[in-house]
Design a protein that fits this description.
With 735 residues, the protein is α+β, with helices and mostly antiparallel strands. The chain is built from 20 helices and 25 strands. The strands form 6 sheets. Strands 16, 17, 18, 19, 22 and 23 form a 6-stranded mixed β-sheet that branches. Strands 3-4-5-7-6 form a 5-stranded antiparallel β-sheet, with helices on one face. A 5-stranded antiparallel β-sheet has the order 11-10-14-13-12. Helix 10 (318-349) runs antiparallel to helix 11. It is elongated.
């Protein structure tokens, strides 16, 4: 025989059928292509060798990915007609998926149909199947190709039952499912199977894969494949018929139950790989995951029941399962939202200091979370008989005023919760009127209400109330949320009580320890200023002026790190020590050194700095020393101002060597000013900026006439913006 090759006539070569066993060769596609190319050239079919190579690649790839070993390829014929046969042990025929941009598979059969003169599938004599394709020399120049409808008709001509094995099978009726959902879900799985098949090939080529990943690949690619393929076929057939829904009916062996459970677990593991970006395939969409769990669970239950001789329960429709899932997710979302809101409340409450702060956080968050018309925080008033309202949202002034006039013994919900410590839930207007008839005139627009006590420390500290303008049924989750909110609020109110008590104690202690008035010194005026940080009225700054009885005075300005009772207590200890040591030996080095020893022996944890001045009233001589404190400002009679030159030693208790003192003489009309760093420090600003501003304001030709005028000038010279630390200034002016 001969064929036309374009410009010459070549005699055909007749060769017997040749076959190659590939089994599970790691490079099956490459080996098969080389085999077919060599055989085609030997048979004089050079003109179609490229088409044959491409058809071979697609047939072998399908066999590796969807079939089962052993896999073999055979070629027969001559230049006029070449026939390729690919056999594998899986009896199920190939499937042509719907082609889409998101699907990485489904194009192979279309390529084969376009290139081959004829192709088909048949049952292999020894089991499994054979997919074959024939190519003629004339096909290489022929126009036209099989349409998609032709391919579908070709596949439909081989009923699936013709390839079934001899196992006992059970019919599982899953019912109607949206066709689009089926196709999308199966396309996603096809992409995963394809990627895992490539991964398996890589492992066979010597590219190591973890053992658990290898098992996962095997389960996803081959486990439960019969049920998966059957669903795919039925969905594609329905889509090609234009049917919006597919009735799924599966005939499966008993082994499908165990395979289905392993398949589900494997896909969950695969999603974990996808989430960790270890796969190209994306994580399974939630609706697809819901579908596969629905149908696999149904298959497992039905097959096991039928295999055990039990009447299987009807399969719950997928739409019903979806509605249940939507309800579950809605409930979960509500719970999650409320948990997140409780976390935000907790974070916000950590910054509160007063009941008003607490109400501002809790009531607004509670109203938003519950969708309430209004809410309020109520606590017992100071008179012990009425109710106070630190904060409310959604209540008019008239209602808030009425709440403040409410007595603790009133037959109203919030008062009841305060008295009894038990929550009140009113779910309808009828229940409201029956249990609390006063509410009709008190709050007529309210239909439902809840009032819960705020417990902490074994006491009821207040109550939260929320009003609703419509009927409200408080389910368990909602009640738990309100009670959790109340628990947080109660604990925070207790903390604010403790904070207020500590603040008052520190205030009382500090007021008791600071001088009630400055010492009167003949020929001198003395003025002091103290301002607590943030108006907390409890800090660690201190000052003192002590008349020593020998014509000298000792003056001190100090700063204890921190605020509150602990700082005030440390301030009291330090001030008392300095007073005692100054009376015994007023020399600056002696006083500071003895305080150092006290701190070293008792290992004081508070950081304390101090400026100590010993002043001879008659001569104006000033001897000074500092323990980590800023030097004083000296203001001359001519209006000049500058820092005194003094050795700034370490804070108390830090042993770095002996202390040193410095002396100077204040002429008449001069002054010396000691202060704490709160005067010149501002957050985010260098301290030199603040000290420079104070010196600039003090340098003036207009000399001060007394200590109080000078003190006013110093305080007003402080940088703008307000200090977040205590401010103490002590001014001594020599007339």
């Amino acid at each position: 025989m001969t064929y036309d090759s374009g410009d010459s006539t070549v005699a055909s070569v007749v060769i017997e059928r040749a076959e190659l066993l590939l089994d599970d060769h790691p490079a099956a596609v490459r080996v098969a292509r080389a085999f077919i190319e060599r055989e085609a050239l030997a048979r004089g079919a050079a003109i179609v060798v490229d088409d044959l190579a491409l058809i071979t690649a697609e047939l072998i790839a399908n066999a590796v990915q969807h079939g089962a070993p052993p896999i073999s390829i055979a070629i027969s014929g001559d230049a006029d007609l070449i026939r390729i046969e690919v056999a594998d042990a899986n009896p199920r025929p190939p499937i042509r998926p719907a082609v889409s941009l998101s699907n990485m598979t489904g194009r192979g059969l279309a390529l084969i149909a376009a290139l081959a003169t004829n192709w088909g599938v048949e049952r292999a004599p020894a089991g499994g199947k054979v997919v074959w394709a024939e190519v003629t020399a004339a096909r290489a120049t022929a126009e036209g190709e099989l349409s998609a409808a032709d391919i579908d008709q070709l596949l439909a001509s081989w009923p699936e039952t013709a390839f079934a094995d001899e196992q006992i099978r059970y019919t599982v009726v899953l019912g109607d499912v949206p066709t689009d959902l089926l196709i999308d879900a199966k396309s996603h799985i096809d992409n995963l199977v394809r990627e895992f098949s490539l991964a398996a090939t890589g492992a066979e080529l010597g590219i190591d894969a973890p053992e658990h990943l290898a098992r996962l690949i095997q389960t996803v690619v081959h486990g439960f494949s019969e049920a998966r393929d059957a669903i795919k076929r039925q969905a594609l057939a329905a889509a090609r018929r234009g049917e919006a829904r597919t009735r799924l009916v599966l005939d499966l062996p008993a082994a499908a139950a165990e395979a289905g459970e392993a398949y589900l677990a494997a896909l969950d593991d695969a999603d974990a790989y996808a989430r960790a970006a270890r796969l190209l395939t994306l994580e399974t969409p939630h609706v697809h995951r819901l579908f596969r769990r629905w149908y696999v669970d149904a298959v497992v239950r039905q097959v096991r029941d039928m295999a055990a001789g039990r009447e299987p329960k009807p399969v719950v429709a997928f739409e019903v399962r979806m509605l249940d899932e939507i309800q579950r997710l809605a409930t979960l979302q509500r719970i999650t939202d409320r948990a997140a809101r409780l976390q935000r409340v907790t974070a916000a409450l950590a910054r509160t200091r007063t009941p008003e702060d607490v109400a501002d956080v809790v009531v607004s968050e509670g109203v938003m979370a519950l969708g309430a018309a209004g809410g309020g925080l109520l606590v017992p008033a100071e008179d012990g008989e009425h109710i106070a309202v630190p904060g409310a949202v959604g209540y008019g002034e008239e209602l808030v005023g009425a709440l403040r006039e409410e007595r603790l013994d009133a037959p109203l919900p919030a008062a009841t919760a305060l008295r009894t410590g038990e929550p009140v839930w009113l779910e309808s207007r009828a229940e409201r009127d029956q249990r609390y008839p006063l509410l009709r005139g008190f709050e007529s627009s309210t239909v439902s209400m809840c009032a819960v006590p705020l417990r902490a420390g074994g006491r009821v500290l207040g109550a939260l109330r929320f009003s609703f303008s419509t009927r409200r049924l408080f389910d368990d989750d909602e009640r738990e949320f309100v009670l959790a909110l109340a628990t947080q609020t109660g604990q925070t109110l207790l903390r604010t009580e403790m904070y207020a008590a500590e603040r008052q104690a520190a205030l009382n202690l500090q007021r008791a320890l600071l001088p009630e008035r400055t010492v009167a010194v003949e020929g001198w005026s003395v003025a002091a200023h103290y301002s607590p940080a943030g108006q907390e009225e409890a800090g660690g700054d201190f000052y003192d002026v002590v008349a020593l009885g020998d014509g000298r005075i000792a003056a001190v300005v100090g700063d204890v790190m921190g605020r509150g009772v602990e700082a005030a207590a440390s301030m009291a200890q330090t001030r008392t020590m300095i007073r005692a040591y100054a009376v015994d030996d007023p020399d600056p080095v002696s006083v500071l050194s003895r305080v150092d020893r006290y701190f070293q022996v008792l290992e004081g944890v508070q950081l304390v700095t101090a400026l100590y001045l010993l002043i001879d009233v008659e001569s104006g001589e000033v001897s000074m020393a500092t323990a980590g404190h800023l030097p004083p400002i000296v203001i001359g009679a001519d209006g000049g101002a500058d820092f005194a030159s003094v050795d700034i030693g370490p804070p108390f208790g830090i042993d770095v060597g002996p202390r040193h003192s410095t002396s100077l003489c204040l002429s008449r009309g001069s002054a010396i000013v000691g202060f704490t760093d709160g005067l010149v420090e501002r957050r985010g600003e260098d301290i030199d900026t603040g000290t420079g501003a104070v010196l600039e304001r003090l340098r003036t030709d207009d000399a001060a006439s007394d200590a109080w005028a000078l003190l006013s000038r110093v305080v007003n010279a402080a940088p703008e913006g307000g200090s977040d630390d205590d401010v103490t200034v002590l001014a001594l002016y020599r007339h």
